[in-house]
Amino acid sequence: SDYHFEYTECDVLGSRWRVAIPNKAETCTGLPDPVKGTQCTFSCSEGEFLDMQSQQCQKCAAGTFSLGTSIAFEEWDSLPTGFITHGVTTNEGNAFINCSNSTWTPKGEYVASNTDECTATLSYAVSLKKPGVLSFEYFYPDSSIYFEFFVQNDQCQSTDSERRWMRISESSWSHYKVELSKGNNVLYWRTTTYALLGGAVKPVLLRNIQVSGVAYTSECFHCKPGTHSSKEGSARCTPCPADTYSNKGATVCHECESDKYAVPGSGSCKPRPACTNSDYFYTHTPCDSEGKTQLMYKWIEPKICSEIIEGAVKLPASGEKQTCPPCNPGFFVTNSSACEPCSNDSYSDGKGAPSVLTFYSVLVNV
């Protein structure tokens, strides 16, 4: 647990070495010697990860998934491996302010920026074996924060300065997508707050970061709450059906208790509310062979309310059978007691069978 394995850069022959890297500098000695690594053309398939110890692709365990040539970051209980965040003072700011704790902070479903006058940077380095695409969602509601995103690649080329600044989010999450070059790419998300002292500032939020074009992932990702994977080698996690839930890394979904409910893809169950008049509707049954119809009441589906809670309404009883109303003019009653439009060359006042039009010839003298 004191070290991990990484590959060196590929040489001109397309080969590389696997080397051991200590997790903390100067904490241990006697690291394993470098060994010949896999060829640079090597990749893993969907549902697999590269075990760096054996340098072989292995299937993801149940409850986890892998996109193969893509990596996804959907859970932010902690910063995922490879992400780095740090805070620094701005040139215009107070040089005596300690910005060491002004970082991007994982919040479960997303990662949040700082809200003080420091500059906080979140970065991630990724090596692509072919041109790929980066996509992520962000929520940027406060113009008191300057929010920029940019990419630097192998050739030290960076995103144009005009394209760095992100658009303010109107009311919901915004989606961003950019193409990445083959080779090494370093992704940067950076925020700086310019607000009056004491003013409340809303942080920038990031989630669902995904990068395509990688050769492999060295770990599988846990299914997020509300999803599950029941077998090994899954490329995606399956959402839980209605009235079930799951925790992170689940292999099965669990049934909600009878007094609770859940919408599809839920990580928890909620208490059922008391039924109200807004939870049902009425409809008329089709006319039967006797020309009768009946008023029926039905619950709106999916039904989430409870009828047994104090103050809850009950579903009204069905009405008495009544004579079906006539069809609209131009329609007639069929053998199945439904109204259908008259065919060409026929008409109806809606009360009976259609009548055939009679055509008369008129001679006009000119």
Automatic annotation (TrEMBL):
Residues 71-215 form the Elapor1-like galactose binding domain. The lineage of its organism: Eukaryota, Metazoa, Chordata, Craniata, Vertebrata. Residues 326-351 form the Elapor1/2 TNF receptor-like domain. SMART domains: Ephrin_rec_like (SM01411). This is Endosome/lysosome-associated apoptosis and autophagy regulator 1. InterPro entries: Elapor1-like_3rd, Elapor1/2, Elapor1/2_TNFR-like, Growth_fac_rcpt_cys_sf.
